[in-house]
Design brief:
single chain; 358 residues; alpha/beta
Length: 358
């Protein structure tokens, strides 16, 4: 069971606003964006898997009028940083400044074998990527700014010569798990995006102290850096159905050795190996059932929030003060478009019924 405490490592409470991850289909983005905005969510974060995060963000921007819209995440390395800077600049203008660019590195196999792009020294590459973004936006404002690094360079300004001197840079976030990418985020970004596979203990005892230590090393005030943290959250009037969906999502993430530190926060180091064994041995329709069965009830309560709406809301409120923004993430693994629409709308209803904005 999750610890009841909701304080950071230094005993300070954070802002704890509420964001929502969008894994729904294009056809449902507008409906969900409107519902989340009306219920008082502060942000919508669009994913990128088989669909473009940039286009999904554009759809969410068009459907809404007040809510922040961000990418969580747009894959950085398959795109040149200058091209990404142009997309972010345009989306920021389209949204009236509501757009935030969240970037992720992904893993070597995906970047090289799916996107045919380079993957080496990801933290150092991301650091240069962020500096090129800043240089590109400075050029858009009419400033003279170039960058030359080991991985990227920007030497020529845009031929358009927009000279938008009054425009601010879009907010930039970096998705990070390990210490090197976290350091890059703290040094060059406006904030950090924490992976939704996590636990309250991992946040309080490992991730938050790491961020705070790096901010101190950089001499950067914590007030100027936003910590936005994802969390697996599943709400349904049928509590058992909500819990099964969350277990399946935990099992999917839990097969990845990179996230072993999360399991270690509660002494569940062996669970990663068990889940990997199930993944390799089960097949077809048996895989999802086997994965769900492999996640103990106590692990569910440690790495997700799932159940009936009232229970979910109470537990979400306990976790929110651990971060500047809690991004609730409905389980998406092995779920079709109709199921994702229903799960997301139920989550909006569960977490915002008395916060409706006209």
């Amino acid at each position: 069971m999750m610890d009841n405490t909701s304080r950071g490592s230094a005993g300070t409470l954070r802002e704890g606003t509420l964001g929502l991850s969008l894994y729904c289909s294009y056809e449902d983005i507008a409906e969900i964006a409107v519902a989340a905005e009306r219920r008082g969510f502060e942000a919508l974060w669009v994913s990128e898997a088989g669909e473009s995060a940039i286009i999904r963000a554009s759809a969410a921007i068009h459907a809404s009028s007040r809510i922040e819209v961000g990418t969580n995440v747009a894959l950085a390395f398959p795109r040149s940083p200058t091209a990404m800077a142009m997309d972010a600049w345009d989306l920021s203008g389209l949204s009236g400044g509501r757009f935030s660019l969240g970037l992720g590195s992904q893993v070597r196999r995906i970047i090289e074998d799916r996107y045919s792009s380079s993957f080496s020294s990801p933290a150092a590459r991301m650091a240069e990527y962020l500096q090129v973004l800043r240089s590109a936006w400075a050029m858009e404002r009419g400033d003279s700014s170039t960058f030359t690094g080991q991985h990227y360079r920007l030497l020529l300004p845009s031929v358009a010569g927009l000279g938008s001197s009054d425009r601010k840079d879009p907010q930039v976030y970096v998705a990070a798990v390990g210490p090197l990418m976290t350091k890059t985020a703290v040094r060059y970004a406006d904030g950090i995006l924490g992976h939704p596979f996590t636990s309250d203990r991992f946040l309080r005892d490992t991730f938050v102290p790491r961020i705070e230590s790096l901010l101190e090393q950089e001499g950067r005030p914590s007030a100027g850096f936003r910590f936005c943290q994802g969390f697996i959250v599943s709400a349904d009037d049928d509590g058992d159905r909500a819990r099964r969906a969350a277990k399946l999502q935990i099992a999917f993430y839990g097969t990845t050795p990179n996230y072993a530190g999360v399991f270690a926060s509660y002494g569940d180091e062996d669970l990663c190996g068990r889940l990997r064994g199930v993944w390799k041995s089960a097949d077809g329709s048996d895989l999802c059932r086997a994965l769900v069965d492999a996640v103990p009830d106590e692990a569910l309560d440690r790495y997700a929030i799932a159940g009936e709406p009232a229970e979910v809301r109470t537990r979400v409120d306990r976790v929110r003060p651990l971060c500047d923004q809690l991004i609730v993430s409905p389980p998406w693994f092995a779920a079709g478009p109709k199921e994702m629409r229903e799960r997301t709308l139920k989550l909006i209803e569960a977490l915002g019924p008395d916060r409706q904005i006209s």
